[in-house]
Write a structure and sequence with these properties.
By secondary structure, the protein is an alpha/beta fold. It is built from 6 helices and 12 strands. The radius of gyration is 19 Å and the shape is globular. This is MBL fold metallo-hydrolase.
Length: 299
């Protein structure tokens, strides 16, 4: 199944954009190869609000959120995961608004670090984040005129969740599913086996639209998620082909598999290959000398 990305998106920095009844999007002006045009925050409700993914410590974005809130009470702040482009502003706005922070839990790796391994993604993790409510899978948090169901979707990070707005067909998919690109799955923050299982979890649902953490909506979710699964299986086959062709380390594989990808993203691509290799080793398909690593040897 082919996967068609949609990069059409107008961020409209400094504005709050109506995208569904009682749902507004506010995009941070923090574009990068990893954040696309920036991180999306969402306001849900009319009289008493929920705020989803307040974003980074950005003064202009903070001011725009407050203008969008317009003095209305905010009962809950929902955080999908603890990368620094999504969560740090939550604590600041909690103190301002008297809101309750809801998330799966604090930042943590998907697995223990191997001896001598350094977590290359530590700088991107919000290590100070602590939610007021560490919410279990499938929990329903209700507010004034809205209800959000929390669905655990580890993979991009160990603590990643998505939020379904009950009775609307809307799902806030954060960084798990985005229309413009595949999610980065990079050990030890994330795990490919978790990510694939989380995609299967979403395929069991019948949401009509996803509003992601970056970029525009996913308008045919089930078709797109099936495409993401097929894309990952294609990447897996490409890695196995490189192993059979004689490549014995990840940089050699990246140079071939990602030869048409922006070189600035080759570091992330290497981590994605590592995630696939960890999964392949776990399934007994590939063997390694020692634990899988960026500079490891495979056969």
């Amino acid at each position: 199944m082919s996967l068609v990305f949609d990069s059409s998106f107008a961020p409209r920095y400094g504005e709050f954009v109506d995208i569904a009844p009682n749902v507004q999007r506010i995009t941070v002006n923090n574009p990068s190869p990893f954040t696309f045009h920036g991180t999306n925050s969402y306001l849900v409700g009319r009289d008493t609000l929920a705020l989803i993914d307040p974003g980074p410590l950005d003064e202009a974005h903070h001011a725009t959120l407050l203008r969008a809130i317009a003095g209305r009470p905010v009962s809950h702040i929902f955080v999908s995961h603890t990368h620094r482009d999504h969560s740090p502003l939550a604590t600041v706005m909690k103190d301002e608004l008297g809101a309750t922070i809801v998330a799966e839990g604090p930042h943590r790796p998907a697995r223990a670090l191997h001896i001598g391994e350094v977590n290359l993604l530590d700088a991107s993790g919000d290590m100070e984040f602590v939610p007021d409510i560490a919410v279990p899978d499938n929990a329903l948090i209700e507010g004034d005129g809205w209800a959000l169901r929390v669905i655990h979707t580890p993979g991009h990070t160990a603590n990643h969740v998505v939020f379904a707005l009950e009775s609307t067909g809307i799902l806030f998919s954060a960084d798990h599913v985005m229309a413009w690109a595949t999610s980065i799955v990079a050990p030890p923050d994330g795990a490919m086996s978790d990510y694939m299982a989380s995609l299967d979890r979403l395929l069991q649902r019948h949401d009509r639209v996803y509003f992601p953490g970056h970029g525009g909506p996913v308008t045919k979710p089930r078709t797109f998620v099936r495409g993401l699964k097929a894309h990952r299986k294609m990447r897996e086959r490409a890695i196995l082909e490189r192993v059979r062709a004689g490549d014995r380390n990840i940089p050699a594989m990246v140079r071939v598999i990602y030869r048409e990808t922006d070189p600035r993203l080759h570091g992330a691509a290497a981590l994605s290959v590592l995630a696939h290799l960890e999964d392949l080793v776990g399934r007994g398909i590939v063997q390694t000398e020692g634990n899988p690593a960026i500079d490891g040897v495979y056969w």
